[in-house]
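User: Please predict structures.

Assistant: First:
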Amino acid sequence: MSKHKSLKKYREQLGISQLDMSKILQISQSAVSQIENGKIYGKGFVKYLKYLVKNNIDINDYFKD
C-alpha cells in the first residue's frame, strides 16, 4: 500500500467521507483527494495529519520507508 493510500485508510478508520473531512479541515473536497493521492502538500496536508493524530490515529506507518 502506498503512503497516500494509507491516508485514505486512516480517514476511513474514522468513518469520515472525503466531503466530511473537507468540511472539518475547511479545505475543498478536491484538496482532500489530492492530499490522499500525493499530489499536494502544505497547510491542508498538515491539517490532515494533525486531525488524524488528534483523533488517536497512529500515523507512524505513514513515515516509514
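Second:
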Amino acid sequence: MTPDQCRTARQLLGWSRTRLAANADVKSWAVDRLEGERGPIPPADEKALRATFEAAGIEFMEEIGGELGVRLAGAAQEAPDQVQGGVNKPSSHPTIDEDAI
C-alpha cells in the first residue's frame, strides 16, 4: 500500500488518521509515518491497515493505466463518470475531519 492509497482510502471513508489507527488497532504514529512518507512501517501494521480498509469496502487496484489506485466497492458500477486519477470517487461525498487531510 502506498501513502497515496492510504490517504485516498481514508478520505473516501471520511476517517481521520486517529480513527483509522483505532479501527486497525495500530499506533497513530504508524499512519502518520506511512502517509507522511517518512519511512516504512512494521509489516504487521501495514497488513492491519489494509485489512481494515478492505473490511470497510475499499478495493485496492494494483494497476490502472500504470498507476496504483483505490476505490470504494461498488463505486465503479454506480458512478463510472466519477473516476479520476485512478480513484473511483463515490457519488456522495463523505464528511472529512480536519486531520483527515
